[in-house]
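Handout, tutorial session.
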Amino acid sequence: MREARLLAALRPFVTAPVPDMTIHSGPPLFSMHGKLPGRTLEPADYAKLDDTARARLADDLARFFTELHAIDPSVMLAAGAEPVGWWDTQKDTLAPIWPLLPTELHGEVEAAIKAYHELGPDPLGEVYGFFDAHGWNMAFDHDRSQLNGIFDFADSGFGPPHREFVQVSLIDPDLALRSMRAYAARSGKMLDRRRVFLLAAAMRLSELAGAIETGEDVPMIRDLAVAWLRQRAIR
């Protein structure tokens, strides 16, 4: 019900198509909306895009983020928006991850966690944002290589602008970097690549600890964390 209210409030402010959700009180309670045309965007799909398509996607995401972040917070607060949750990166929580990480990365991981904990408030403040822009929440037209819409606003809320690019990095660090540049060009707000790297590292390590606890998708999430820590594209 909260997601439907948020979508109704933000839809007039964004160019990208988003779901038009209707709530039926039932019983049973359920929601309904028309599907956005397209399919999800996997990392392997992004790798096949040419430079023109990659630049267009990055700019579409940047425009979407810029438009969301410009919405008066009181509008979204009235619709039920809340602060976004944060990842658990405490020592005890992360203790199970160490045996699964390559030994040569332990120093890198320790440094990243320490630097993450030392991050101060985002210099760009806080905004209403999506904060879940990975490829599984995108309706992408693979024939025309363009974004047709964005869905799943359950995790949207108030948070720092830098965090918007963390989930984008799950598609590819190249897309995160391109969309950050496009966002700066559109909004006039400069982003700190190191801050985004540390936020993403915290997310991936926290999710790895959670996966170990549940026993679900551990190899995949471990590989995502290791790949992120080893790459240098966004730093």
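The second record follows below. Compare its token runs with those of the first.
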Amino acid sequence: MADDRLIVAMDVPNAVAGLDLAQKLGDSVNFYKIGLGMLTGGGLALANELKQEQGKRIFLDMKLFDISATVEAAVRGLAQYDLDFLTVHGDPHVVRAAKEGAAGSSLKILAVTILTSLDRADLDDCLIQQGEVGDLVLDRAGRALVAGADGVIASPHEAAAIRALPEATDRLIVTPGVRPAGAASGDQKRVATPANAIANGVDHIVVGRPIWRADDPKLAAEAILAEMKNP
């Protein structure tokens, strides 16, 4: 049985490449993330095939943000695909609308706090309030959880502090920005190893390029799984 704590990001060009990656990974991986980059390349069809035909779990990473009525309608439409996780921005009105749209389904709504590709200089460019990134993430996470989010997306650096929040009891922490020991950070600025992330209290780690760019993706995934078991 594959360890569902590892979610492989299918940041590949289209559904055909996604199916090829899933075939290479086989039974070693049971959970996949499909994001915006795949949307026009058959992402929803891929999600449906992996879920319905192969029994995989699916994390749809859409990071929805809009007025409440639009978010609710979008989530209601996506919920019919019987997916597992869906991301929305962590603003409380967005989270509440997403939960309304997901009502009656098993879809978990995960709130994005601050993207792991951003640092303080990026937040300044976006006119985000002053303060340490970790403090802002903690505040946004708490507000999203109070609004009803099933969990949050956060970097491994903030995971332990989020896990300590009273609001985080029995909620999920899903962590991108995870790189195996010795791997390049790429465009991620707040990263940690799989072992570090698990030790910090995360439930799932998301890994993309270190797996799908590897000469042997299955071997790369199995190495990460081994790292996770020795936090």
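Points raised in discussion: The beta strands are 6-9, 31-35, 57-64, 85-89, 108-112, 151-153, 172-175, 204-207.
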